Each structure stands twice: as C-alpha cells, then as structure tokens.
C-alpha cells in the first residue's frame, strides 16, 4: 500500500514539474473562471439508499427538495455571474 502511495505521489510531483516547465516555455495563457452552484440538495437520500425501492424514494425526496429550493437572485446578479471573458 505504501509503495502505491509513494508511486502516486511521485507521479503527481513529476506531472506538476513537467506542467510547470511547459507553461514557462509557452507565452500563451488561459484564464479560467468557475462558480460553485448549489443545486438544492446534498443527495443524501439517494446516497443512503440500500435497495432499489429506497433509491426510488430517495430520488423523489431529493427532487422535491430541489423543486422547493428558491433561486437566489443575489448570486445570479453577482459580479461573477455578469463576468464575461475577454480576449487579449
């Protein structure tokens, strides 16, 4: 187990070193913007299902939670929501 973890850590470090050196050689840049959105449920009922019936009931329950969650106009009107990428 420790060998696999050490191998994985080595691979991650090597990938980061290669990516860092590749980006230094390339003058182009990419700007990425993400926004976390709460969909209205944590899917706890679906994930806790232990049978097909529980899954069906969990989907219905979580769907009802999503349907009852009002949209948040404050986040839709936020500066991040109005942001448009610019080309340089």
Order of helices and strands: HHHHH
Structural class: mainly alpha
Radius of gyration from the alpha-carbon trace, in angstroms: 22 Å
- Total strands: the figure is 0
Taking the alpha carbons of the first and last residues, their distance comes to 47 Å
Q: Count the domains.
A: 1
Uncertain stretches: none
Strand content: under 5%
What is the global morphology? flat
Number of helices: 5
Mean pLDDT score: 75
Biggest sheet overview: none
The residue fraction in helices comes out at 55-70%
Describe the structure.
By secondary structure, this protein is mostly helical. It has one domain (2-82). The chain is 60% helix and 0% strand. The protein contains five helices and no strands. The chain has helices spanning 2-25, 44-47, 52-68, 73-76, 79-82. It is flat. The protein starts with a helix and ends in a 6-residue tail after the last helix.
